[in-house]
Specification:
Length: about 375
């Protein structure tokens, strides 16, 4: 009995469409903020810092901040202690330094060299101020940036933004399909939405490293776009292939050969329907020659409910989104059955469906081990 070619969009599909649309909008907004606002602002700040000149000697001596906000002002400090933080996988360092008046403070550093690995207590270092904060320390001609230095700060926002953008498009497409096109496939995981999500994963996997390691956001976008075009072409070809395959098949019935076990076979599964042997919590099935029972006991030894001989299997198919029981452990199949006028669904793993069919045969084939 093949399923109808089309069906009405269900309330569950409409609810899923709303959730996917909300997720898509949130991800798209976050990606836009990170790629269009945060990353460019961080990159501009880095360029300004790297291009900043050293303050004139007179201004540096007086520390006049108003006229020299965008220049580098040196200040001498004495190292009090080098602090090593071992709590992280990669150790981080801080310098406790004191100024000429004896006031001390702890300054986090970027990286593990080339200053912090050679200085020791009592050494004189030069702190370089920019816009009111210490951005680097100098020692014997070498510089090491502090955490306040705006170097490479755009990389993480760019990487996150390029990772989120493809998934936002996949969620928005999924929302549209669930709301307007879900009548074309009742399957739990239709290819119409799964292929775009796989493509989004591929683009995000390529785009995030580009965002992190490229020298500019624009360069990362160009490289990500080139990879995205290739992945999109492959995804489009896969979707066309699936569409032609569906046109050749007018049913989603799966052919499974019945297998009659020589002994009781216990496996996960559930029976759904308005029948006495369908009970909440009974997620174990036991198949034997000419007999199928459901059990509340995971070992299938007690609290059993037998399936009567009036149950007739009509067909086997994949799991649908509207099924009351969604089998989540690996690939699953559903046996559509009738018990008089009532529909009964038996959901089990694909590898166990043969045992179900064999147990329900009135005159089964020879048992197989």
């Amino acid at each position: 009995m093949p399923p109808p070619a089309q069906r009405a969009t269900t309330r569950k599909d409409r609810r899923a469409a709303a959730i996917h649309a909300a997720a898509g909008v949130v991800l798209a907004t976050a990606a836009a903020i990170l790629l269009l606002l945060v990353a460019p602002a961080k990159h501009t700040e880095e360029r300004d810092f790297l291009a900043a000149p050293i303050c004139p000697a007179a201004a540096a001596a007086t520390g006049a901040p108003a006229a020299t906000a965008d220049c580098l002002r040196p200040e001498p400090f004495t190292v009090v202690k080098v602090v090593r933080d071992e709590m992280k996988r990669t150790p981080s360092y801080e310098l406790r330094v004191a100024d000429r008046d004896g006031m001390s403070g702890l300054v986090p550093l970027k990286g593990q060299r080339p200053v912090v690995d050679v200085v020791k207590a009592g050494d004189q270092v030069t702190a370089w101020y920019w816009r009111g904060e210490i951005r680097a320390f100098g020692f014997r001609g070498k510089w090491q940036y502090t955490d306040a230095a705006p170097t490479d700060d755009f990389s993480l926002p760019a990487a996150i933004g390029l990772g989120l953008a493809p998934f936002s498009l996949a969620f928005l497409w999924s929302a549209y399909w669930l709301a307007r096109r879900s009548d074309r496939s009742p399957r739990l995981v239709p290819w119409q939405t799964s292929i775009p999500f796989v493509a989004a994963l591929g683009i995000a996997t390529a785009g995030a490293p580009f965002g992190y390691f490229m020298s500019t956001t624009a360069e990362a976008l160009r490289w990500t776009a080139s990879i995205a075009m290739s992945i999109a072409l492959v995804a489009a070809a896969a979707m066309v292939r699936c569409a032609f395959r569906d046109r050749r098949k007018d049913t989603d019935t799966v052919e499974i050969a019945p297998l009659v076990p020589t002994r009781e076979e216990v496996f996960a599964g559930a029976i759904s329907g308005d029948v006495p042997y369908s009970e909440k919590g009974y997620r174990t099935l036991v198949a034997s020659p000419g007999r199928l029972v459901s059990s509340l006991d995971p070992a299938g030894r007690m609290l059993r409910k037998a399936v009567p001989g009036t149950l007739v299997v009509e067909r086997v198919r994949p799991v649908h989104r509207t099924d009351p029981v969604l089998y989540m452990d690996g690939e699953a199949l559903v046996a559509e059955c009738r018990d008089g006028e009532k529909q009964v669904l038996i959901t089990v793993g694909a590898e166990h469906m043969g045992w179900v069919l064999g147990a329900l045969l009135p005159d089964g084939p020879a048992p197989v081990s």
